[in-house]
Design goal:
Layout (H helix, E strand, L loop, with lengths): L7 H91 L4 H16 L5 H9 L16
Helix pairs in contact: 1-2, 1-3
Keywords: Membrane, Transmembrane, Transmembrane helix
Length: 148
């Protein structure tokens, strides 16, 4: 063993320097791994924020589509109600003018009228149906009823 290693002051100095080097090395490694982990966390947060932005944009598009669909549905409902009203008016008027109807026509008009009511139809057609058409007497059904 070299003589300078026998001196306690040298040993204390070597231990102190070695401890400092080891402490610095541990501190540097710890900071490296902590910074690496922080970077991964920040990347993860960035990815989450980007995904949330995409979801937000998708949600906005879906709301716009729903609004557009609601508008189109309202138009279809109005058109369907108008067509049903027209059909009820003309078919019931024909039977009222004849002064009688068939059981089959009453059944079909009842279904059509129920559909009309579901579409929020009312007023003149409802009065025509309830006060005139449903009280018509029944006539016999003929085989070629639609041809008459």
């Amino acid at each position: 063993m070299p003589p300078w290693l026998k001196d306690s002051a040298v040993l204390v100095a070597l231990i102190t320097v070695g401890g400092g080097v080891v402490g610095t090395l541990i501190s540097t490694l710890a900071n490296f791994f902590i910074n690496r982990r922080d970077t991964e966390v920040k990347q993860g947060q960035t990815e989450i924020m980007q995904s949330l932005e995409v979801l937000k944009n998708d949600n906005i598009k879906i709301k716009a589509d729903l609004s557009s669909n609601a508008d189109e549905l309202a138009k279809v409902k109005t058109n369907s109600k108008d067509i049903t009203r027209y059909r009820l008016f003309h078919d019931m008027k024909k039977e009222i003018m004849a002064g009688e109807t068939t059981l089959e026509k009453k059944r079909e008009m009842a279904k059509l009228f129920a559909s009309y009511k579901m579409l929020d139809g009312n007023g003149e057609i409802e009065m025509m149906y309830e006060e005139e058409f449903i009280h018509l007497p029944l006539r016999e059904e003929y085989r070629d009823e639609d041809d008459k």
